[in-house]
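subagent[fold] <- orchestrator: predict structure for attached chain, return tokens only, no commentary.
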Amino acid sequence: MTRAAPAVPPWLAHALRSQRGPVSWSALLRGALSGGPLLLAAVLAGRPTLGVVAAIGAMFAGINDRPGSRRASVARIGTPALAGAAGLLTGTLAGDHAPAVPLTLLLTALALLAGGISALGPVGSSVGTQLLVGAAVGAGMPLPEPGWLRASAFVAGAGWLLLLRLALPTSHSLAGDLRSGLRFDGERAAVAGVYEAIAALLDAAGSDRATVRRAALTAALDQAQDALAGPRLRRHPSSAAERRLHAQYAAALPLAEAATALAWAQEEVPDRASEGPRRLAAAVRNGAPTGPLPAPSRHAPGLRALDDALLYAAEAFDRADGGRLHGRRRPRAAVLRTVLGARGREYGMRVALCFGVSAAVAQALYHARWYGQHEHWYWLPATAVFLVKPDLGPLASRVLSRAAGTVLGALLFAGLAAVLPRPGGLVAVVTVCGALIPLATRHFAAQTAVVTVLVLALVMAGGEPQASLARIGETLLACAIVLVVGHLPTPGRRGDAIRARLTEASGAAQQYLAHVLGESEDREARWALRREAYRTLAEARAAIALASAELPPLARHADGADEIATTLELLVDTTTACAVHLDDTGRLDPHHLDRLATLQNHLPHLVHLAPQAHPEPNHSPNAPRTPLRGAGNGATNPHEPAPASPAPGGASPVTTPSPSAETP
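subagent[fold] -> orchestrator:
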């Protein structure tokens, strides 16, 4: 009799897992040319401490230097850099003039704000992180330069790496039209990835891999949408190459819709069906004409929609008319609701507690002379910022990875500091570590080890003695603080962030469903609503997966949320199949309506099993669900919907938010 191997806890499995993918040699080159040369120039100019701050700015920019378009990198690198400079200036002024207690209160309030901003998304999370780290460094790292000069050096360091990102070619630049290869290489790769994901979904139709492939298609569309919708100086595309990319992205939307409908039908499609999207992907990636596209069979509505979408794509590729971008719009009111809403409050409170406690402990140790000859007390609160950052995985996984990475990095630097010449050896260490950051971001422990070596080299170059052992002690203390504080009860209820995500996804799904059942002929609006529905669902899925991998006291707050997300995904999939059938026959299919009614009626039952999932207070609890004609729910007029049965507590689990309530 064989004994089953014990399952690895999710929080530990996450700590042992690393990201995979091709190595970006261009990112490694940019990293090598960023912090090291800046520090060398400052040392030669006799201002090493200024070079330290600039290299720190370049280091953070290197961490945010992720794959994507050049346009998107402006916001991804530049916006957090400005926040870091603001935090550095604030921390410097407060550290120079405020006593310990007011300084701690100020840093805690700043952490509450930064936590709310972090709820806006990846860029918001980077903004919050750099704001707090900058404040901790400014207050806890005494330097001879005034605050405004430190902030300027920080922005200059990040700006230098951003300039390298915009100017240097990447591996994608070597393919396709050389005239647009350098400028739009990231956008081309992202749009080509959409067509490849469509082909993969068609290949998986009728198999158990279809769900995973559909999720991969959503991720590819999200990436392309972000790549094309970066900061722009003009309202419309400014060149023929840019208009062509917009047209190619827009042409992928009906193809994605048809592929999703075919996957929903759970029937295999002919092999030649995926050949057309693959040829379109090659045309986008290489900047070449599409050539003849194989026509799929037209014996089913989904296949007829796929054939029509291929014809539309071929015409759009030749016409190269960008049309509408279908980008996400964030009204200021929606951004403010996110920061002040459940997600912002829950994360902001946790960040404020962890950062405030760590800053208070650090100052207590500093004033008690525990640091000895080391005057810098920034390490402990700065470590807490990274530990409480949810983008990096579950809390226990982050703590393990941070502790292991810091110990490894500190010991490695202690050995290097004993043999390397100064300052040349330190500049070389900073250069090598800068090059390794893009590779080390695949795992938090590896990133921590590289950053630890880099920062210790920088502060030693700025005149501080070797402090590896002290940094290990402070890191372990910060890990203990965050692990304890992160599991303490907080005002409000745990799981509000997941509830908010599910409410947003539910509202987007209902808007999409209402548009389809209204038999509107505006297909571009339908594609935009479908994109938003799938995107909010993907964000909810990511939040649920992260919460489920926490330690049991925190993971239990995600119980039942995964099943609700699955039902919402089935609702959107069925709505997509319904839309394709409506285009093909001109009428709604009773089979689709019955399935939609079943899914909608099942949602209140799921909410009853998982009472944590309920709408945000800013959504109307009496908002009706979309009625289904012919679905047996008593609603016969699509323009006069009947109210849905309330969920426990009087709240409907599927609500329709106001048109301006768009999610970040």
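orchestrator: received. Logging for downstream: Residues 174-180, 608-624, 629-664 have pLDDT under 50 and may be disordered. The chain is about 70% helix and 0% strand.
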